[in-house]
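FAQ: What does the model actually see?

It sees only this:
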Amino acid sequence: MAVTEITNLEFGKMVQAAADKLNQQADFINSLNVFPVPDGDTGTNMASSMASGAKYEREASSDKVGDLSAALAKGLLMGARGNSGVILSQIFRGFAKAVDGKDVLTAKDFVDAYANGAKVAYKAVMKPTEGTILTVVRESAQAGLNKIKESDDLLEIVHAIYEASQAALKKTPDLLPVLKEVGVVDSGGQGLVDVLEAFDESLSGKQVEKSADYQPDQAEVDEMVNAMDHQSVQGKLDPADIKYTYCTQMLVRIGKGKQVTKKFDYDTFYNYLAKLGDSLLVLNDDQVVRVHVHTEHPGKVLTWGQQFGDLQTIEIHNMVWQQEEIMENDDETAGESQEPTPVEKAKMAEQQDEQPDTAVIAVASGDGVIKLLKSLGVTNIISGGQTMNPSTQDIVDAINNSGAKQALVLPDNGNIFMTAEQAAEVVDIPTAVVHAKTIAQAMSALLEYNPEADLKTNQQNMEANLDSVASGEVTHAVRDTTIDGQDIKKDDYLGIVDGKIVETDPDLEKTAIEMVKKMLDEDSEIVTILYGEDGDEKTAEAIKAAVEEVDDELDVQIYDGGQPVYPYLISVE
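And it is asked to produce this:
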């Protein structure tokens, strides 16, 4: 049977299916990291980004797909983590722009919107690289444009887009040599393929399986229930306008109890309840199924549940009565003053006085690293870095809550650049991004910071200093591979200088020493060693001694950085 339009219900299911699929696939996508180091986070970033988008979509009160698409795009924007998450948000930003104001989506609407998403994503990247998620979105969008010429069946069209994305993904190693060398496809492209597969499965009626270890916890369930209730009962809504009186929730133990007459099947279970009301939410695993629905017949809901298992918990609320009480309470408190007390005013003034005109915000982890950055002028820290990329919302909150008139953001990780730039576009105060890729670069840039200079001058001066420092990282390999002409064995240590593996050895100390020797040249003056959670001061002193043997005039400084993932971070200036 052909499908010629996507309603709000279908769209919501597609979005949630994509969020579930990315959650399920996150570890696999992470494993496609080109470097065999324990910081692959593309899958985690895309899953977190899509989960934020799905949350915003669930909480939107409209039944128009155009409005739900805008909510999805906003959620992806604010929840975007890493470059992959930002690009995903841009795809759906373009999608949302193309369907603005539409109640439902026809096949042509969907195809045109997805194609616009591809265009917007390309524009968002300063130097688009083929063999990445951009190739996958462009070629799959073209497949949709081709298919719409011969069919208006969304089942055929979405499937054609999904199949084209698979074909494009398989080609990424041919377009990006480093992928072929390592023997993987592009991780961001894989994430988009998973999103499109979920869309295809959801629209065709296939149940998208969630990962065995994923079940929404009670907080997430409560959040979804609250979102459902918010859509039906808002603000000054007249109680007489509430369509369904009873908010009904139950938890059914599948297959347990004396009245079980049916074997649980999600579609059968869901479809009956969908006829009894709206705001339906059905979540299940192998043991239980949770239900939330607004209905006029709570008894029928409970009776239906008992045919599949016994009822563990039951909640029924009269929403008409609740809304009447809310309106009565609002009337009673409408005239109350919101003026802060004298003590509150004094605290607010004191806090305002403490804030600098310019907030210098850095992304970092490790107590020692944070102390070091603050000693160099950083005013605010966002916890994060490798494996813990902050979201757009995290950066926005740090900027807006700083109390400053303007802000400088140091991402300290190339995978956070696009997120920081996205945050700078939506915050309340002027904000500039200093494109420091590492902690070492951030430290060098901060030496050029002038509190008296304007935002643009500081940004320019700080970025001009980035190339004066070489950044070295020591970590361990998480798999066997060959890259940059080197055979790497799992659990060997790697010395990485400015993004290139220059040393590998089973011995940690030897790896660090050989790496730093390759970083030195005749202009080197200062070597800074930060040892992390998996490093120690004794080894750091051994590295220092080896460096001084090469050149005893070098100034070698050692700090306890406390950073995760990398036992040693070493910079040479």
